[in-house]
Amino acid sequence: MNKKKTIIMVRVNEYTSRELNKNIPFTPDEIAETARECEKAGASIIHFHARKSNGDPSHDPEVYLEIVSKIRERSSLIIDSTLGQITVKNTKERTSHIRKMKDQPMKRADMAALDVGSTNIDTYDYKTKKFLSTNKTYHNSIETCLSLANDMDNAGVKPHLTCWTLPFLRTADALIDMGIVKEPAFVQLAFCEGGILGGHPCTIDGALAFIRMMPVKKIIEWTVTCKGGNLIPAAAVALEHGGHLSPGIGDYAYPELKYPDNAKVVKFFANLSRGYGRDIANSDEARLMLGL
After folding, report:
1. Could you tell me if 191 and 226 are in contact, meaning their C-beta atoms sit under 8 angstroms apart?
2. 145 neighbors 171 (Cβ within 8 angstroms)
3. Pairwise CA distance, residues 139 & 1, whole Å
4. 20 to 30 A from 166, CA-CA: which of 22, 71, 84, 142?
5. What angle do CA 113, 261, 114 make, to 5 degrees?
6. Which pTM value belongs to this model?
């Protein structure tokens, strides 16, 4: 078993409704307080989406900068921002906050999520045998990926490469090979449950399919997350094979843990890692591992 320390990136809110878990943070202060609590529980990275006070998505660059500033006031976590996923259509608009961060170090994220492929993220309901939507295509052309990566590089923000399927991982390998993404690269394997069919299922086999295709001639740190389901199956594979963990109530409400807050989820997965014989990396150790 690989004994390297585990990086935990907590995914605190995404665009998830509080109907699923009342503990989802919306405001900059709520996100910053969540960061403080999650750092104490074992997280070294926080991934967030800017939200309005009513929970709607926010794409105001000033809100992003305020969130980063307030997280830095309350924790030493590595800060990882979204680029907006399907809620922002224009490529340049997706990095408007990243470009604004360039000259403001205390308000600049350390990393941002770059999804390196396209997929359908509509949800299928197996009970009614119907799709709940039919037009949610997450479009990321190579042209888009190169533009987003260039804007991040110019701003001093490291991309983390999110892969939903094997073609995404092959594209990540190409971007690293080109030098567009610097080594050590940080790759996130995004599994899908809850009727989302656009990614690998969060199963042992689904995780091993990724691992068998992981580029071996590149310096890569990789992590696992699961949209719409419990991360444990992929987490077990990651802990066995030297990967890292990216849980959070932004992706799944965790009814098995009685609908916890993010800090309790982090604590659960930190203990799971220790149970596998792997200690938890603090933010300074994670920075070294990720070349930040």
Report:
1. yes
2. yes
3. 37
4. 84
5. 5
6. 0.96
pLDDT in tens, 141-167: 999 999 999 999 999 999 999 999 999
CATH topology of domain 9-290: TIM Barrel (3.20.20)
Residue 208's contacts (CB-CB under 8 Å, 6 or more residues apart) are 237
Q: Which of 225, 221, 272 is nearest to 242 (CA)?
A: 221
Q: What is the DSSP string of 221-258?
A: EEEEEEETS--HHHHHHHHHHT-EE---TTT---GGGT
pLDDT digits (tens, 9 = 90+) for 202-238: 999 999 999 999 999 999 999 999 999 999 999 999 9
**C-alpha radius of gyration, the chain, whole number:** 17
pLDDT in tens, 109-122: 999 999 999 999 99
Q: Are 122 and 135 in contact (CB under 8 A)?
A: yes
Q: How many helices (H) and strands (E) does the chain have?
A: 10, 12
The residue ranges of every structural domain in the chain are 9-290
